[in-house]
Design goal:
By secondary structure, this protein is an alpha+beta fold. The protein has three helices and 27 strands. The chain is flat, with a radius of gyration of 37 Å.
């Protein structure tokens, strides 16, 4: 009996040793894999104008590995899971010739300029837009595979500026001015703004009518814009007899970033102590830049140099503690206007009294503060109602970068002819006529006097 027990113990010990050795070898292999092949960077133009050429580049480090192949794929811009990606370029190191191309809509490869991780597209059209994936595979024995993804957008700008309809130059006996600004099909869609005598038109006078006016072929992704300006004549500048109207069109490229924080109770039954952590860093749903992992430094988390970050977060909080955070924009991916920052609490915009705006610094970076007391009143108001624990708080800093690609404008001056101006014109004409009549009467009286004088002289003689 004792012998059986000893054998069982030895067997369990052997299993433990084997399991431990196996886990250890797997860990060593994973470390070896991590320390070997990696993609340093991927370059895909964020946006190009239709017809332009473009370079794609995938830079990698092999370390102790050997290269097996580099493959480029393209997927739809909205294909998050990359299920429908298509291979368009393949470089196999030990193959002769090493490069192969595959027909893919929107991908026009110049094979003479393309090699290894660099691919040259000699032209582009609207179908060139999409997600571009670089996949690098190491040779045996590891056959490790790493991938990186980035987005490319294609712009189509109209050949001419906006138009204003109707093109009337004068108005009379009307109570309202009613004109419409139109911009032709483009990508991105034009942003139209109305100005009255160099001042931005009040919102209540402007009516977006995009739903009434669209391009004939909506399948190509082009969109038109139409905005109506309707305002009362006698309420807006009633003493002026002309209106200088200007419609301005802007074509704006937008990129966004999100930095996210989670604050939740340590104990599910109590809201006395909380733990906080960054759970997502620099997620870019619209720009397509890669979602990066974040480090564990809770004082200031930056996924990589220049990205959006949040300062001031503590790892733990107690009930009634003050939470003071500052979201800071990083380097814009485009030549943009100042970054627009917004704080969201469980996907609801924070109240204005909780937010503090800081001046834009010399480098053009923006900062936005968020401050609140982490007490029960705050939790009751802001906790996620869909969360059964009702105490989880998700804080998001949303950054919007905008670049003006092109802008143009159309002006039209409308002269107002009122009843008063007509009366003034009639009075001028009457006065001129009276002046002319009185001049003719004077001449007649002068001739009459001369004739009388001549008759008198003749009588005397």
């Amino acid at each position: 009996m004792l012998s059986i027990t000893i054998r069982q113990s030895l067997f369990k010990m052997d299993l433990f040793i084997i399991s431990f050795f196996y886990s250890f070898m797997i860990s060593i292999f994973q470390l070896y894999m991590i320390d070997c092949l990696k993609i340093k960077s991927i370059y895909v133009p964020k946006a190009i104008t239709i017809g332009e050429s473009a370079w794609l580049n995938c830079s990698y480090e092999l370390e102790n590995d050997n290269l097996y192949s580099i493959i480029w794929f393209k997927a739809n811009l909205h294909d998050i899971n990359l299920k429908d990606k298509k291979q368009f370029y393949r470089y196999v190191h030990n193959q002769d010739p090493p490069a192969s191309t595959y027909e893919t809509p929107g991908v026009y490869i110049d094979e003479t300029k393309s090699t290894r991780g660099s691919v040259y597209l000699y032209k582009s059209d609207l179908t060139t837009e999409g997600k571009y994936i670089c996949e690098v595979i190491a040779d045996s024995p590891s056959f490790q595979t790493v991938t990186r993804t980035d987005d490319m957008r294609v712009h189509y700008l109209p050949e001419s500026g906006p138009t204003i309809e109707p093109t009337t130059a004068t108005i009379a006996n009307v109570d309202y001015i009613n004109v419409t600004c139109k911009s032709g099909p483009s990508k991105p869609k034009a942003r139209l703004s109305w100005y009255i005598n160099e001042a931005l038109a009040p919102k209540q006078y402007v009516y977006d009518e995009d739903y009434l006016y669209s391009s004939k072929d909506t399948s190509n992704g082009l969109k038109s814009s139409q905005v109506r300006l309707l305002f009362p004549v006698f309420q807006h500048h009633p003493n002026e007899n002309y209106y200088r109207l200007r419609c301005e069109s802007q074509f704006v490229q937008s990129f966004s970033e999100i930095a996210q924080i989670s604050i939740k109770p340590l104990n599910q039954r109590s809201n006395d102590n909380f733990t906080a952590a960054f759970i997502i860093g620099a997620m870019r749903p619209s720009s397509g830049r890669n979602t990066e992992s974040i480090n564990s430094n809770n004082d200031s988390v930056i996924s990589k140099e220049g990205d959006l970050r949040i300062d001031g977060l503590k790892t733990t909080y107690h009930s009634k503690d003050r939470v003071n955070l500052t979201c800071r924009s990083g380097k814009s991916p485009v030549r943009s206007t100042p970054t627009k920052l917004t704080w969201l609490i469980n996907n609801v915009e924070a109240n204005p009294e909780m937010v503090q705006t800081y001046p834009v610094d010399s480098l053009g970076n923006s900062a936005l503060g968020l401050s609140f007391n982490l007490n029960q009143s705050f939790l009751n108001k802001w906790s996620d109602v869909d969360d059964p624990k009702r105490s989880k708080i998700i804080l998001k800093c949303y950054a919007l970068y905008e670049e003006i690609l092109f802008q143009s404008s159309k002006e039209q001056t409308i002269r107002r002819i009122t009843r008063e101006s007509k009366s003034e014109s009639a009075a001028v004409n009457t006065a001129d006529q009276v002046t002319m009549n009185s001049g003719a009467g004077s001449r007649l009286r002068f001739v009459d006097q001369i004739m009388k004088l001549l008759i008198t002289i003749l009588v005397i003689l």
